Amino acid sequence: KKAPKFFDIVTYTGNGTAGRTVAHNLGAVPGMIILKNLSSGSEGWRVYHRGANGGTNPEQYYAMLQATNAFASASTPWNNTAPTSTEFTLGTDTGSNGNGNSFVAYLFAHETGSDSMIQCGSYTGNGNATGPVIDLGWEPQWLLIKNTTDVDDWVMLDTMRGIGATTHGPNILYANKNDQQLQ
């Protein structure tokens, strides 16, 4: 649902020029941006995440939602410029700013206040089958998980599919696959 300090969807036309800014109505700094070049079927989904590179200069990294690759260093998708509460900046990458191409961007806020309803965070795995316990202070309804430093799937979990289920585990969807949900 589009709502301030939660989620926004914007469309724009690329100009191919480094430093292109795109305004948004999120009213908060995006924690994650997923965007798609709608004019080119060969371009994948570009992803910005505030936790890329351990949270140090994440605007210098991107990942592809349809691929398993780790986040990669590149200046062209985000022009090495961190997003703000009013806009995000693009470089010359054709997948995020191809001249004359139409784009859609999905922006997820990152809010840490006591009344916030969304966070885009990161954690370090511990190598155990059960993984680390991450206490958000509230129960999430949707999660998108990606190993940022290694080849791995994009894992989606939500309450409709049993996130937090303890008997058989949750049903899992993979954003980068055409498979049905894993049960």
What can you see in these coordinates?
This protein has 183 residues and is an all-beta fold. The protein contains 1 helix and 11 strands, in the order βββββββαββββ. The strands form 3 sheets. It has a 6-stranded antiparallel β-sheet with strand order 1-8-3-4-5-6. Strands 9-10-11 form a 3-stranded antiparallel β-sheet, with no helix packed on it. Strands 2-7 form a two-stranded antiparallel ribbon. The chain is globular and about 45 Å long. The mean pLDDT is 89.
Helix content: under 10%
Q: From the alpha carbons, calculate the radius of gyration and give it in angstroms.
A: 17 Å
**Strand/helix succession:** EEEEEEEHEEEE
Mean pLDDT: 89
Outline the biggest β-sheet.
6 strands, antiparallel
Low-confidence stretches: none
Number of DSSP E strands: 11
Number of helical segments? 1
Question: What distance separates the N and C termini?
Answer: 27 Å
Spatial strand arrangement across the major sheet: 1-8-3-4-5-6
SSE-based structural type: mainly beta
Shape verdict: globular
DSSP strand (E) fraction?
A: 25-35%
Brief rundown of the structure:
The protein is mostly beta strands. It has one helix and eleven strands.
Topology at a glance:
Layout (H helix, E strand, L loop, with lengths): L6 E7 L6 E4 L6 E8 L7 E5 L11 E4 L7 E2 L13 E4 L3 H4 L4 E8 L32 E5 L7 E5 L14 E2 L9
Antiparallel strand pairs: 1-8, 2-7, 3-4, 3-8, 4-5, 5-6, 9-10, 10-11
